[in-house]
Amino acid sequence: MNIQQKVNGVWGSRWVFILAATGSAVGLGNIWKFPYITGENGGGAFVLVYLACIALIGVPIMIAEVMLGRRGRMSPINSMLLLARESNTSRWWGSVGWLGSLAGILILSFYSVIAGWALQYMSLSASGEFYQISGEASGATFSGLLADVESLVTWHTVFMALTLLIVMAGVVKGLGKAISVIMPLLLVLLLVMLGYSIAEGNFAEGWNFLFAFDASKLEWNSVLVALGHAFFTLSLGMGAIMAYGSYMPEEKVSIGNTVIIIAMLDTLIALIAGLVIFPIVFANPSIEPGAGPGLLFVSLPIAFGNMAGGQLFGFMFFALVALAALSSAISIIEPTVAWLVESRIASRIKATLGLGFTIWFVGLGTVLSFNHWADYTLFDKTFFDSLDYLTANIMLPLGGLLMALFVGWFMNTKAIVEELGPIDQGGYKYWLRILRYVSPVLLAIVFVMSLIG
Ligand code: PHE
Prior knowledge:
Layout: H1 3-8, H2 14-25, H3 28-40, H4 44-72, H5 76-86, H6 95-126, H7 135-147, H8 149-168, H9 175-200, H10 203-211, H11 220-233, H12 240-246, H13 255-283, H14 295-306, H15 310-342, H16 348-369, H17 383-410, H18 413-420, H19 426-451
Bound molecules: phenylalanine (PHE).
The site of phenylalanine has 15 residues, from helix 2, helix 3, helix 11 and helix 15.
């Protein structure tokens, strides 16, 4: 065990890593964001581009990021500095870690507000608020929530507090156990909901919307959104996966296979969420597929309000969404906490509290962007929209691009082989080529094209 692992811990086994990384990947991105951006970007063609981005860019970069962590064995900032030195190249690569920390602060600030909606919807479900609710009434309930600053702040505060408590206790303790309960339950409940959508929703139309390819609906900006979401949903490009990789035990496991398992689970959960939500949307004319961030919260209460046991299912479902969000939130803040602790700037408790307060404060901007600040926009985007766009579509892909370039072109080959095994045979042969040529070029094309429209 080296210094970092003594300071910040190490996973009990390979499985704890898989669970923790899956816990990081599966979150609001899959259940809340994927359906609503799919709705906003016209459906099938967007989904196809998203799947291609996962396979051609996400998976190769995720392998690179886990490897960087396991090799560096420190927080992302220090790992990048260390590996740059080991590879005799510039200290500037440390900026990958800095960029990631900044992205993490911005992401968690709005992530926590949205997770707060899920907390509030737990209590609304349990209290029977959704009993036989209509599409219109469900829309009104959600708008009411957005206008209610006090509730938004309260639930945002509760969610941040839960996140900080877990991070203060250290990532290893408890986390692995929690995830191994949350993930299977979430999947089961999603399948229950899928049963409801097949039986009661407009399943054929929902299916078509998700999977019918209509290229005419695709603009360059949608391609950028799909690409950005591939990073967001896999927790890539900001060091979350790198930090988790640095806690991997010494036992040699195939990073490639591990990453493929995580990416497939993540994609599966997003697609099921889409198949649950869109049939309900199409069965209720008052809800638009492009309704935006409220899509999940407007559509699902209708299902819960009309199914047997809906009060309990609704409560459980939103509880699971909140838990899935929690297991992602801790991975968003962990890289920076790890860096503060390891650099002896602060103890774990002080680091977590200080950082947590900063993030909570920035989150107030997102809260206000749904009401008092709703009319203050920049390029037609509210504060929340801007943060979401800046982080998912620019900062994460940029971080990922830098990681791909570093591993593909600058990192010491001997170090790569020591982590992954021979890279001139099997899947890794393609991996290195994709990482060198395909991923960076695709990323560059999407960036440039969406800039010039
Ligand atoms: N992947 C998480 C989700 O889908 C969000 C996340 C983004 C987590 C970036 C860590 C880093 O909800």
